């Protein structure tokens, strides 16, 4: 059988994924037209036929196809490769290479009789340039925080050392510089070294891991907990695993959910439904179309990181229970900050016992690194046994575990209650000061204070000027973290920001606002508030 040199290079997976693009290109190739003659283009048989053709006698090739002018390849390159970098390739083997010669990606060409080499670096550059043109290219500030003087840091972004006040850190309570937390990390390093030595299954499990998990299960009032390398990994791994393991599960996801949750749901390939952000009525109406005996999971966050929104937790759990759905609740921006013991919004609202799966982070209010899941023993054991994101990675190092557990214990205590009270007091002072100055505060009931800007390039300029001219670090938040048109500055006060620092922040913001002719009045702030709602 004659075989198409282009189709021969495609894996069945690629053919199945992009079958619609191939279908549109078939009429342009006389060989492909004959190959599919008589087969309905929408027929499920097409995929298997093409896959069989790919495995046919490769000694016979299309005598119509001319290298560099293949109609299928040219169309594919235009519609798929240029957009997604999915140009088909064969395995590349470099033989007899000079040990002293280093080949770049650009110097390696495809081993195909009808395919040109793809200029990878040119593609990478073009993708980055696209980000720069729309002002969504991220420039990392070179910041070294000072553990002896929180919330200050030394900024090296301009090449010179500059002392700055940090107003955008997720170290919400300053626990990273707490003497007991620091000593826990230091003493643990001296005893156990700086690394864990392996995965949890192969030499990387320790009493410290299990002790921290017991601390977390106690914090959330759950029978068990499981520690991950980050809460991004925890969210992605748990949702992916549940979506792939529970038969016919449908996941109903809040439109404002974090990228980690979205990615876990997407890669599970289970049916998903998205409800409007924090909209209980919309959620209820969507669930009405799903049989009550069908497996369901509702996934949402309590505190949303960029808007400062807080979900209607009780109402959402009411809906979950009424529809016999599992509840998956992300408390990343709430743990340590809310509730009598710092367990989050669920503890504050008396709803912890109703939640099936709680995820949280050790890297924000708890000031270490890592993420976790808390839930039933059965759930945790299943995730421990099946989640690739947990199984196939080196476990957290001993000092991070010790620091996190010490921080949790402090925040459970009366000292933690005092810190949370001071934190809420400072948040209120900063929000009120910004509002009184006429700055466009997006109102929210949490500790996060967004200032609306609405244009990416301008938002970045404001952030840069605050840093370079006023020694204040507030990060600009642009797409894709927020929608285009919703660009903002995100301010995160801590208990350690003083009245003087607050006054300097407000004065500096007002100066920059005036410089760029931005509205600075109470009516403007009210307008933004209504839009955000």
Automatic annotation (TrEMBL):
Cofactor: pyridoxal 5'-phosphate
Gene Ontology process terms (BP): protoporphyrinogen IX biosynthetic process
Residue intervals of the Aminotransferase class I/classII large domain: 165-509
A cellular component term, taken from the record's GO annotations: mitochondrion
GO molecular function: 5-aminolevulinate synthase activity; pyridoxal phosphate binding
Recorded metabolic or biological pathway in which this protein acts: Porphyrin-containing compound metabolism; protoporphyrin-IX biosynthesis; 5-aminolevulinate from glycine: step 1/1
Keywords: Acyltransferase, Heme biosynthesis, Pyridoxal phosphate, Transferase
E.C. numbers: 2.3.1.37
PANTHER family noted in UniProt: 2-AMINO-3-KETOBUTYRATE COENZYME A LIGASE, MITOCHONDRIAL, CLASS II AMINOTRANSFERASE/8-AMINO-7-OXONONANOATE SYNTHASE
Catalytic activity: succinyl-CoA + glycine + H(+) = 5-aminolevulinate + CO2 + CoA
Protein name: 5-aminolevulinate synthase
InterPro entries (UniProt xref): 4pyrrol_synth_NH2levulA_synth, Aminotrans_II_pyridoxalP_BS, Aminotransferase_I/II_large, AON_synthase_class-II, PyrdxlP-dep_Trfase, PyrdxlP-dep_Trfase_major, PyrdxlP-dep_Trfase_small
Family: Belongs to the class-II pyridoxal-phosphate-dependent aminotransferase family.
């Amino acid at each position: 059988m004659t075989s198409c040199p282009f189709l021969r290079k495609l894996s069945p997976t690629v053919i199945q994924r992009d079958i619609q693009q191939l279908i549109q290109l078939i009429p342009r190739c006389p060989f492909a037209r004959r190959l599919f003659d008589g087969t309905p283009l929408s027929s499920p048989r097409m995929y298997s036929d093409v896959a069989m053709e790919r495995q046919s006698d490769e000694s016979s090739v299309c005598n119509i196809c001319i290298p560099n002018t293949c109609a299928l390849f040219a169309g594919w390159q235009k519609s798929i490769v240029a957009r997604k970098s999915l140009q088909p390739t064969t395995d590349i083997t470099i033989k007899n290479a000079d040990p002293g010669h280093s080949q770049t990606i650009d110097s390696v060409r495809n081993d195909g009789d009808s395919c040109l080499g793809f200029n990878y670096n040119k593609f990478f550059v073009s993708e980055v340039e696209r980000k720069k043109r729309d002002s969504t290219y991220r420039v990392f500030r070179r910041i070294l925080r000072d553990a002896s003087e929180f919330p200050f840091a030394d900024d090296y972004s301009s090449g010179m050392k500059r002392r700055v006040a940090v107003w955008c850190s997720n170290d919400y309570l300053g626990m990273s510089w707490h003497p007991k937390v620091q000593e826990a990390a230091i003493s643990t390093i001296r005893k156990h070294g700086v690394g864990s030595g392996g995965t949890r299954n192969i030499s990387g499990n320790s009493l410290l891991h299990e002790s921290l998990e017991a601390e977390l299960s106690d914090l959330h009032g759950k029978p068990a907990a499981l520690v991950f390398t980050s809460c991004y990994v925890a969210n992605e791994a748990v949702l992916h695993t549940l979506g792939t393991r529970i038969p016919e599960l449908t996941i109903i996801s809040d439109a404002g959910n974090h990228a980690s949750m979205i990615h876990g749901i997407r890669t599970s390939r289970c049916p998903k439904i998205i409800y409007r952000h924090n909209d209980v009525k919309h959620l209820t109406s969507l669930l009405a179309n799903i049989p009550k005996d069908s497996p369901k999971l509702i996934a949402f966050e309590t505190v949303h990181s960029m808007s400062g929104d807080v979900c209607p937790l009780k109402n959402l759990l009411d809906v979950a229970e009424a529809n016999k759905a599992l509840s998956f609740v992300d408390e990343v921006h709430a743990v340590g900050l809310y509730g009598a013991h710092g367990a989050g919004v669920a503890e504050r609202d008396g709803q912890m016992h109703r939640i099936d799966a709680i995820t949280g982070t050790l890297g924000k209010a708890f000031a270490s690194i890592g993420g976790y899941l808390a839930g039933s023993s059965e759930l945790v054991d299943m995730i421990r046994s099946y989640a690739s994101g947990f199984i196939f990675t080196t476990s957290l190092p001993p000092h991070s575990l010790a620091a996190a557990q010490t921080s949790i214990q402090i925040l459970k205590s009366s000292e933690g209650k005092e810190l949370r009270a001071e934190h809420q007091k400072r948040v209120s002072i900063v929000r009120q000061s910004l509002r009184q100055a006429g700055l466009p505060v997006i109102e929210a009931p949490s500790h996060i204070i967004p200032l609306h800007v609405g244009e990416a390039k301008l938002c970045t300029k404001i952030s840069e000027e605050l840093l370079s001219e006023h020694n204040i670090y507030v990060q600009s938040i642009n797409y894709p973290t927020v929608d285009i048109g919703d660009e903002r500055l995100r301010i995160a006060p801590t208990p350690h920001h003083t009245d003087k620092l607050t006054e300097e922040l407000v004065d500096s913001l007002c100066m920059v606002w005036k410089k760029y002719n931005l509205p600075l009045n109470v009516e403007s702030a009210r307008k933004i508030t209504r839009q955000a709602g």
